[in-house]
Design a protein that fits this description.
With 357 residues, this protein is of the alpha/beta class. It contains 11 helices and 11 strands. Helix 3 packs parallel to helix 4 and helix 5 runs parallel beside helix 6. Bound molecules: pyridoxal-5'-phosphate. Pyridoxal-5'-phosphate (PLP) binds next to helix 3.
C-alpha cells in the first residue's frame, strides 16, 4: 500500500475547496472582494484583494533553497502548522496514535491532544547522551501508529539522529506510518538535510522552517517536504489564503538574491558563539552538565536551577526551564545570543557563583 493512502479516509475522499480564480488583466467579479482599496489603492501592498490561495512565489523560492521540486513542498505558517496538518490529515481521533521521543518538542503532543490522538513515548536514552535507539522506536509502533516524529537536532537536547537510523525506521514503517523528520535546526549542524532522500522511501516527510537559522520567526513561514501524493493529502487540510499579502512581500524581500550568503555568515557566527559559550559555561561553578549541541541552543543542568533562574530574572535575562521533564531535573535550555548577550549571561552566572560561595 502506498504510504500516502494511510491518511484518514474522509480526507482521501474530501472534495477540496475551490478558491476563486485569479487571472491577471481580468475584471475580478468572482470573489466578493472590494473593488477599491481602503489603503494604498492600486499598490501591490493594497489589501482589498485576497492573496494567492497558495503563496506560489514563496513555494518556488523554498523549493530552490531546499533543492526539491515545487510539487514536493507545501508552504505552511511555520513548521508548527505542518505538524498540525499532518496530524489532522493522517490520524483519526480516538483511534490512531503518534510516536514521539521525549524529551522533545512539545507541539507534537499539543496538536495530538487537540485532535484526540494518542501519543506513545519512545524515550531518548537519558543515560547515553539522549541518543535515539531505532529499535525502541520500532517496538513502540503498532497498527494504529500513523506518524513517527523524529527531531534532529533535537529540541531541547541538541543532539543529532543518525541518518542511517532514520532511514532504517522509515523503511521498516513503509505503508504503515509516515516518518516525520523535524529539521528546524539542521542548518546549525554538520548534517545534510533529508530533503534529497524523499524518493528512497514513500513515507518520509521533512519539516523545514525559516524561523531559526533564517532569522524570520516573525514571518511564520515553514514547509513540509514529501512525495507528491503526501503533499496533495496535506494540501487538502491546509486552508487557502493562509499567507497575508504583506507577509508574502516581506518573505520574498528577506530571501532576495544575495542574502543567502549573509545567512550563512550569521549561522557560522552562531555556531562559533555556541562553542565559546559551551566552553565558558563549563568553568561556572553553578553548572553541572552541558550537553553538546548541534543547534542554536544548549541544554544545561545547573546545581540549583530555581536559584539560578531567580537570579537571572533579576538581571533581566531569560532562559527556558525544562525541569518538569523527569529526565531533565534542574535543566534549562539556553539559546545562543549575540556575543554581548552571551557575555552578559556569563557575567551574571559568575556573580551568582560568587554570591553563593
Ligand atoms: C521552533 C521549532 C519548530 C517550528 O517553528 P515554526 O516557527 O513554527 O516554524 C519546529 N520544530 C522544532 C523542534 C522547533 O524547535
Amino acid at each position: 500500500m502506498k504510504s500516502a493512502s494511510i491518511a484518514r479516509p474522509e480526507i482521501l475522499t474530501l472534495k477540496p475547496y475551490q478558491a476563486g480564480q485569479q487571472v491577471p488583466g481580468t475584471i475580478r467579479l468572482n470573489a466578493n472582494e472590494a473593488p477599491v482599496a481602503a489603503w494604498k489603492d492600486g499598490d501591490p501592498q493594497s489589501l482589498n484583494r485576497y492573496p494567492e490561495a497558495r503563496p506560489f512565489t514563496i513555494q518556488q523560492r523554498l523549493a530552490a533553497m531546499f533543492g526539491v521540486s515545487v510539487a514536493n513542498l507545501l508552504v505552511t505558517r511555520g513548521s508548527s502548522e505542518a505538524i498540525d496538518v499532518l496530524i489532522r490529515a493522517f490520524c483519526c481521533a480516538y483511534k490512531d496514535a503518534i510516536v514521539t521521543t521525549p524529551p522533545t518538542f512539545e507541539m507534537y503532543r499539543v496538536y495530538a491532544d487537540i485532535q484526540g490522538v494518542g501519543m506513545v513515548d519512545a524515550p531518548l536514552d537519558a543515560g547515553n547522551g539522549f541518543r535515539l535507539d531505532p529499535q525502541r522506536i520500532l517496538d513502540a509502533c503498532s497498527s494504529t501508529t500513523k506518524l513517527v516524529f523524529l527531531c534532529t537536532p533535537n529540541n531541547p537536547t541538541g543532539g543529532l539522529i543518525d541518518t542511517a537510523d532514520i532511514m532504517t525506521i522509515a523503511r521498516a514503517r513503509q505503508g504503515k506510518s509516515l516518518v516525520v523528520v523535524d529539521e528546524a535546526y539542521i542548518e546549525f549542524s554538520g548534517q545534510t538535510s533529508l530533503c534529497q532522500r524523499i524518493d528512497e522511501v514513500d513515507n518520509l516527510v521533512v519539516l523545514r522552517t525559516l524561523s531559526k537559522a533564517h532569522a524570520l520567526a516573525g514571518a511564520r513561514c515553514g514547509a513540509a517536504v514529501a512525495n507528491e501524493e503526501i503533499v496533495n493529502v496535506l494540501g487538502r487540510v491546509l486552508p487557502p489564503y493562509t499567507f497575508p499579502t504583506p507577509v508574502v512581500e516581506c518573505v520574498l524581500q528577506a530571501l532576495e538574491h544575495g542574502r543567502a550568503e549573509r545567512s550563512a555568515a550569521a549561522i557560522a557566527d552562531i555556531i562559533a558563539e555556541r562553542e565559546r559559550l559551551h566552553e565558558a559555561l563549563e568553568a561556572e561553578t553553578c553548572v553541572e552538565t552541558i550537553w553538546p549541541s548541534q543547534a542554536n541552543f544548549m541544554l544545561v543542568r545547573f546545581r540549583d536551577l530555581a536559584a539560578v533562574q531567580n537570579f537571572l530574572r533579576e538581571e533581566r535575562i531569560l532562559i527556558r526551564d525544562f525541569s518538569s521533564y523527569p529526565a531533565l531535573k534542574n535543566c534549562a535550555r539556553i539559546t545562543v545570543g549575540t556575543a554581548a548577550e552571551n557575555d552578559a549571561l556569563l557575567a551574571a552566572l559568575r556573580r551568582f557563583g560568587e554570591q553563593q560561595s
